[in-house]
Specification:
about 240 residues, mainly alpha, two-stranded antiparallel ribbon, 7 helices
């Protein structure tokens, strides 16, 4: 037990960290509340779970990841005013046409969303600055995957079978995005990741990111099964028609 405590960061229970984790729980509770409002009581458990997931997914994309993009494009400090620029998370060369600025949540000051991202950046420092790969993925995530997740929620509430197609597309985007996010780190021996303690490695990096692996895989499985059942039903109807 002592060694486990020693592996935790000293600022584990600071105010910003607790607020960050609480905000995630609040978003999940909101997603569940939306499911109670939008779905029939008799909705299948798999559909309710996927509604909650995609509502949670959309809110995370719009609120949290949207705030990350805001700071990447609008929060900056002149490098000339920074005493040790090497201590900053990198900003891509000539980002937005400037070479003398540091962008990202690290330049967001006391903004609560900037502080939230600086907590996560303790585990993956790319999220403190303006990393081109991360920003490129987040643009697709916020402006494409987020609206698609809303469409899925709407489709599940309306019992629209075409929702299965959108669900497969969205899940594939999530899986591809996760791979592109972390593959550069695997190829550089986790240069920007801090896996030195339990919280950063197993909670921030593994748990939170693996949610966007296993649940999209489950969504694909449910959607493919529904589509397969539809084809089977059509085949049975075609056979029944021929026998008449």
């Amino acid at each position: 037990m002592a060694s486990f405590k020693d592996s935790l960061p000293p600022d584990l229970f600071d105010e910003t960290t607790l607020v960050s984790l609480a905000s995630t729980v609040a978003i999940l509770a909101t997603a569940y509340g939306l499911s109670l409002w939008a779905l029939d009581r008799g909705a299948p458990g798999s559909h309710r779970f996927l509604f909650v997931w995609h509502a949670f997914d959309a809110l995370i994309h719009f609120i949290l990841e949207g705030s990350f993009l805001y700071h990447c494009f609008f929060s900056w400090v002149p490098l000339a005013r920074v005493s040790n620029p090497l201590a900053l998370a990198p900003t891509a060369h000539n980002f937005l046409g400037y070479t003398s600025r540091a962008y990202g949540p690290q330049a967001g000051g006391d903004n609560p969303f900037a502080r939230l991202w600086m907590v996560y950046a303790k585990a993956d420092r790319r999220w403190a600055g303006a990393d081109l790969s991360v920003i490129s993925l987040e643009l697709l995530t916020v402006f494409v995957a987020g609206p698609l997740a809303c469409c899925i929620c709407y489709g599940l509430a309306r019992k629209d079978p075409r929702t299965n197609v959108v669900m497969i597309v969205t899940a594939t985007m999530e899986l591809y995005g996760g791979f592109i996010t972390f593959c550069p780190e695997w190829l550089t021996m986790n240069n920007n990741l801090d896996t030195s303690n339990f919280m950063y490695k197993w909670v921030y990096l593994v748990f939170f990111n693996m949610l966007w692996v296993f649940i999209p895989l489950y969504a694909i499985w449910v959607a493919v099964k529904d589509i397969d059942d539809a084809f089977a039903a059509r085949s049975q109807n075609a056979l029944a028609s021929k026998k008449k």
